[in-house]
Write a structure and sequence with these properties.
The protein is mainly α. The chain contains 9 helices and no strands.
Length: 195
Amino acid sequence: MPDTPSTLRRSERARAAILAATAELIRELPYGKLSVEAIAARAGVGKQTIYRWWPSKGAVVFDAMLELDSGPDGLALPNTGDIAADLRLLLRGSVAALTDSGFESFLRAIYIEIQQDPEIGAAYRERLLLPQRAAIAERLGAAVQSGELRPDLDLELATDLLLGPIQSRWSLGLGGLTDAYADAALDAALAHLRP
């Protein structure tokens, strides 16, 4: 029997409730204590409803993070014609996201999952990491074309130079992630990226 419009609406409401419950709980509980049972209880659904859409707790958390992080402009970076200004916004935005306690809890959970679950690792790379890197490479490529950056620029290496310092400090728990640090990391990268 095909789904009726009311069944589809109910399904979408349940899915939205599950993702919202996950977003709330990931901020309230250590990741190790988060369970599918807790998500189901908070969302007002049965566990089987969750498992109908997601194979694991990590998969639900990943989709909830994507839902929270998706913006109306997609993954395109601004192109104001000033690569330094555009990259400054990117790196300061990265610092803001990584130091936001609510969003950081999602990222810490996903970092645990991508180490343990190859499917979530693949989904993370395909749905989030690689599209983000492609958007950065596209913006860098435009800056190469306009003469703002070196013509022989390796876009992969350039992306690593831009993101690496901030990601490294965050993943190792070194702290010090501020706008001033983002600006200093950008200045160091631009010393290599510019002609």
